[in-house]
Amino acid sequence: MLKRSDWLDAARKLDWTYSYVDEREVFPEAISGAPWLPHEAWSSWNEPFKTTFAEYVAQQSLKTADVAAAFAIVEQSEYVKTLPPAWVSAVKLHVALLPLAEFAAVIGNLRAARFGRDGAWRAAATFGALDELRHTQIPLLLMHEFVKHDEQFDWAHKFYHSNNWVAIAARHVMDEMLLTANPIEYAIAANFVFETGFTNLQFIALATLARAVGDRVFEKMLTSIQTDEARHAQIGTPVLSKIIAHDRAYAQRMLDKWFWRNWQLFAIVTGFSMDYFTPIECRTQSFKEFMHEWLIEQYLEQVKALGLKKPWYWDIFLQSLDTYHHRVYASAYTYRASVWFDFVVPSPRERAWLRDKYPSFAELEPVWNRIDERWAAADAHNDFAVHGAAIVTFCDICQVVLCGGPMGQNSATFVDRGGKKHAFCSEPCRWIFECEPDRYARHNDVVKRVLAGEAPANLIALVQRYFGLEFATWGKDTYGGRYPWVVRPRNPTESRL
What we know:
By secondary structure, the chain is mostly helical.
């Protein structure tokens, strides 16, 4: 019997010289990506895992056993009630954004499995597609059991099928990266930037917090997914190395674009979870500290090793690391009925913790003090007494509200193109738009849809008829405004609550 080393490359490197068609016909540039290079230039492409199908199946069967153990925990009817209420919101946020984005990644990998420029790349992408299908199924399977206890968990499947403003923002980045990008851009954006950089923060650091909170199900789900991510993340570096050798400027632009696009999504999803939804006694580090430990240092080392530079907007990024997710959280709390998970007001102790971790948080405290005052003047559980009413403005790239920059210095910027005014939350978002305006100019955010008559202007109608939420599922204050530090005058209404 042949040794594994004798036959593996023959099974992986399935490339040949075409006799009756041109190579450009088999791998057209419009689908395979630019710069277009002949296969000879790609023939040295390699990745370190070199997994066989038999090995892949054996490894995945062991992981399936772990998921089965997690499912046994989920079937315990009281499991959700054992978790801190704010942490449950972190779970709802993640399981909505995760599974169908992973399904989109199946398509991205399958495109690479057909149009990737080397057989080994195509083989690795095939395993990647199988991985992503598994990553779709796991959270949908686990969360389905929770729907009967809490209808907000139904958004694990419903989210991307809705016109919710967060879904619009998530689709805007995920569709571009996972569904429409050619294999080269996909490898840089998803395999290198997203999976080599940001998923360590998501699937390792956040899993550590899940363990501290006592959420064994979420921890198992994240760690099971991360072991796959680490393997097919290896596709990115060899693809990027080839592009650097032939078009360094394009490689740098792709890195800069996708780092910013991924950063803004993770700042919200993971920043909310680490700094607001994790109980303070379980917080080992702040989101900012996790970013420095798990992403920034490692990412910059990899970029430097490839001979590229850190993004031109690095100083803007570091400033946004201090402020961005805090400002988005305060804004989202004010409009919590527009999302499918609940929010909490940070306690005085948590505000002191946030000031210590983020000195600039002191500038945001008056907002939370004002929210305290509003709750003190309102009946408990009357969420709309402490809620925004006007529709806010969104960025034309990230599709998130215009709340970048330090307090009092909003970083919003604008571009007039073809008689249409485009708003951006930051200079990097504006730069991304101006590099490829035809790619983004026709997309309409929520405000533009309202102005065009596609969506209702009344906030309640917008939430119900366009975002697809109802009272049982829209976001509320987790404690209905009942906080020990919020003192209300006693009255007959209060005494009956």
